[in-house]
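Q: What would this chain look like folded?
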Amino acid sequence: MNAKDMERLQELRRKDPLTDKEWQQLEYLENKLENDERIEQFQKNQREPYSSKYTRAVNLAWEFYKNPEIAGQCYIAVGGLDSITLYLFLRSIGINVPAVSVSGLEDKSIQKVHKALGVISLKSATDKEGKPYSKIKVIRDFGWPVISKEVAGKISHIQHPTEDNATVRHAIITGETGAQGGWREGSRMQLAKTWLKLFGGADPEGKEQGYEAAEFFVSDKCCYYLKEKPCEDYHLETGRWPYMGLMASEGGRRQKALAVNGCNYISPTTKRSCPFATFLRDDILRLALEMEVWYQKNYHLFPGPKLDTIVPAIYGKIITDDKGKLQTTDAQRTGCSMCGFGIHREDRPHRFDLLWERNPKEWEMWMTHVDQDKDGNWYGWGRVLDYIGVKWQKPWIWVEAKRQSETFEQMTVFDEQE
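A: My prediction, written as structure tokens:
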């Protein structure tokens, strides 16, 4: 909480009587102070040594499993390396529950690991006609997943103005909140100026301020229809609650949600466990290496053929960098091949350049042939990336530069060994 908010909170605490608006401000600021204290403690936990985080993860996993409202009725939502590591971690400490995934959305190398470990494959959610959503259909129906989930959600609000979301849209454009936001000015609800300039014009108030409006829709709903809802449906069918491999260090919406709500969250309507919530990237990769050793000794516990490694090929190998931190040699994060969240922060070769390296035909489709505009012209990620200022043309140049860099590093290591 900043000094201005703290000063206002102390002022409201001393004042008597309070108006209705002041009561709303006081409630908002009290909640904010409590959340800030939770976040501070969570950040302290993030700074603890790996051994402490490992022990906490073990305790959290068992506490969730043994909670009377859970009673062992759990499952594991599996995707990339982090949640693969979670699955093996839980098995290694004696928690044996089903693992599920919409595996068809993942890279082929991730699907291979899923199959070997016996991960149950789910289908994506269905549309009004009962047909499963595909990656392309969810973009055509809702919009492009770009920038971040939080920003995409705000842009989607202003691109679909209604009377019901007028207050929210005003806050997104100006930063001024109503009762729910404590009647504040300059709040974090406001969209960053960079994105207001490009997308704010879709809202009448934003248009008056001279902001531009994109010719395509933006959405944060891809993950929900392709991944989250299938898991919700699995819960409804089985009564099981999820373990999730989420880490606050990944940023975005989950960062504050995990810090405020805690690693284990149990309410009347929602229950979930994130044992790795306080882990940093180095921690999860260290645990992955430990689970590699455990798996090679216990591969017979799983239904599929023995894997040479639990690390899917898309990540490359886990190595120690020049700062002593663990990292993967290829992909650092994975997800759907059509996901654009965070793309504006990546150096080249970025994820779409690497997609070209793996599958040029798929790259061509995603870049140029996903949807049609109002004039009937086909377009894809290329147009979206152009609009937000992200370069994507000639990926082969950047891929080749990466190869040459890796070759040079290998030669340097060889020379040093000589």
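Residues 410-418 have pLDDT under 50 and may be disordered.
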